[in-house]
Amino acid sequence: MFTHLKNIDTAFRHIKAFSLVLIAACTLISCFALYKSYESSNNAGKHIYILANGKAMEAVSAERKDNVPVEARDHISMFHHYFFTLDPDEKVISANMGRALYLADESARNQYNNLKEKSYYNNLISGNISQQIEIDSISLDLNQHPYYFKCYARERLIRSSSTVNRLLVTQGYLRDVARSDNNPHGFLIQRWETLVNKDTTLNANTNSYAVQ
């Protein structure tokens, strides 16, 4: 009888020890699973998928400060594209100017109003002239805020009979603002001015452009 009770006591201790080991193992597995799930969730949050032309493209998120040069240059490029890309259509001009003026302060609006008062846009429409711009380079100083920039670009005024090439140089400053659908980069161009906007002519003898 005592042997029987001893066997029962031993079995109980074994079952108790086994149960404790099992509980500890389950706890460790649960903690590991929670950790891996949290890690996977964080990793997934760092990836952004952009749908372009029917294809999903992956983009990796990063800190704002890491992308400032890229985003700033793209903001400047977008502004100049909208401001200087024009077709002989009042609705196209109005739409592009509307997008451009979301990206800059009153200095851009003042230039727009000056061109409008000089009938620049009416002349494009009446002459069936399209205007295009190509950015050559953008210099950017990130040492102090607001960020100073200078943009070098080329314009083309396309007529039915000829194409006029122009050299364009502008400068201004960028300050941080809240991001929005109309201003995805979260910058605002201020104190924007045109330094150079001159016709260039192809020299047939030297095969090079000269500023007139």
From TrEMBL:
InterPro entries from the UniProt entry: Conjug_transposon_TraK (IPR022276)
Name of the protein in question: Conjugative transposon TraK protein
Biological source species: Mucilaginibacter terrae
NCBIfam families listed in its UniProt record: Bac_Flav_CT_K
